[in-house]
């Protein structure tokens, strides 16, 4: 079903819809002109028998013009072009078929023009009239003063009635447009084909010429019935679509909902939200103008017409705040404030105002999560807090963006071509699958939903170091060995660059959604895999005992000029005091253990403990028990501990639940086992695949508890960034902060307290605060960089002993 104008889009009445309508109206007007010209030329040919050759030549030119006007329809254009070429040769023959021309050309096309195009014009008049009425009603509704309730009610009632009328008229208008566009093909071709068959019958002199044209004409004759059937089917489908949209509009009227707006940061066109708002001008008159606003690419922009270049209202949403405005006469107003200016806007209803405020807030938060330092630096008020964790004055390595991330990811074997279609030089990636994609396949992956694939640009987005390492651990070769294991066996053809989108989409859905090509392991294979992973975890753990001891930690020092507040928090259990003002300088005082480098396990002599605490005891050794049954969830469980991302990806492909619970081992989850394994990347992989960061084991301990007990600072930092609940208590009523204080792990204590302070600051600033404390952002970014790029700075392996008094 080919729809020229989308029914959904017409209800928005967006600039795109208006632009499409203008284009269609111009197209229909030109079509009418060309058809009228063709009909008049045919009449002239009939009446002027003596001037047949000249009239016939002009008629042929008219056909060529009609073919040129129908360049978007290959069937019409190619057919009419071929007919015109044949008719040009027939000008030398002196046979006139006025009667057939009267029936085939004049009557049919005039009927089409008088009936169908006339209905279109009548619908256009109604549409133009109701559009003006709607615009007037919107302006009147917006101008209604707050303190005059009767005017407000009157304006609201008029607007509601006008909107309802507009929806009916615009849907009828769009239906008429689509039906006309669908019918024009069959009407034109049927008329011309009849005229051409008349020439074949009566012009014996042109037999040789038409013998070459006859196969094409027969082919079109066979297609004509199908075209008529298709046109009727399209009309029926469009009428059904029209009825569905009309019912949907009626339901919206019943619920008094103006429209449905949703914030989608992963939209294919980059527009997170869009719609009409009134904007107050910055001139002396403070006039209000209705504009089409949108949130896209971390900016707030608006435009008057679809063809106009968008006007940027806010260049960088990270620098802004949004708030309600109740101190002005107009209703439903809100204000977006930046350091240099403010923009006052008005929605059409309270629901729309709340939706826009929420969208701006979400955009601000998203911009902060995806921010990178390459080419986008914010002015910092506390510049002294940005370098205390640097070693030797060397500049910190920030989140990668652009070519740096691209080069690292494409260096992995198999990543230089799209994972699904083989298109060279991919520029997109699926971060939860660990593969690279071309732009077409990335759009298809987005349509699957984030529960199947999370798409990110390799050149436009910023890349956290742990996420970049995840991409380098997997790659197209590893994933295709899993998801295409049975492709050749089943005889499925892998798409190639340039294949139709629907074929590529069908293949990708079969590959990742249906997992049709994944090879299911036998029970014996699954058992051997699980046992092998458990033994691999033991080998990795035992190998750490032979590593050379690390030197003792340096004496804590403060940088000159550091601003450490005197405010402190005293632990009743340990008597340890830690600065709680959120300053970064305190982090330089005592390095702690990070999540161990991926693939490495290191153990160093523990730091000296306070006199009140005994030396720590080792963690409970992981022991493999013969389970009741082997499952993909058990494979994921042990693969997470063994730090084997390919085996983890294979388990998920076999249907493993990412939050699978091992009831035989204190209800531990794969994410808790990833903490035990000491790998930051395995934790990141599970979180990207929807692992629950707060799921607890039988002892009431979540991943944050376990990371704190093991002294894995990098994992603590990662879980706090991903929303881990630091206030959760285990069965001994101990929170992660209590455990970190008892273990005297200054770095983890600092991170937990900073996260708590940042949360309290945001609550104190109100519901519209998004950015949080700048020092908090910087410190967590520094820990993320060190955990992935220089774990030795944080390697002081000190475990928590739950039996310690």
UniProtKB/TrEMBL annotation:
Keyword flag S-adenosyl-L-methionine: no
This protein's UniProt keywords: ANK repeat, Cell membrane, Coiled coil, Endosome, GTPase activation, Membrane, Metal-binding, Repeat, Zinc, Zinc-finger
Feature: compositional bias, Low complexity: 383-392
Pfam families per record: Ank_2, ArfGap, BAR_3, PH
Domain Arf-GAP span(s) in chain numbering: 403-525
Gene3D superfamilies found in the cross-reference section: Ankyrin repeat-containing domain, Arf GTPase activating protein, Arfaptin homology (AH) domain/BAR domain, Pleckstrin-homology domain (PH domain)/Phosphotyrosine-binding domain (PTB)
Residue stretches making up the PH domain: 270-365
Record has rRNA processing as a keyword: no
Placement of ANK repeats on the sequence: 666-698, 699-731
Membrane-spanning parts: none
Biased composition (Basic and acidic residues): 371-382
Comment on protein domains: PH domain binds phospholipids including phosphatidic acid, phosphatidylinositol 3-phosphate, phosphatidylinositol 3,5-bisphosphate (PIP2) and phosphatidylinositol 3,4,5-trisphosphate (PIP3). May mediate protein binding to PIP2 or PIP3 containing membranes.
Function of the protein: GTPase-activating protein for the ADP ribosylation factor family.
Name of this protein: Arf-GAP with coiled-coil, ANK repeat and PH domain-containing protein
Name of the encoding gene: LOC114434168
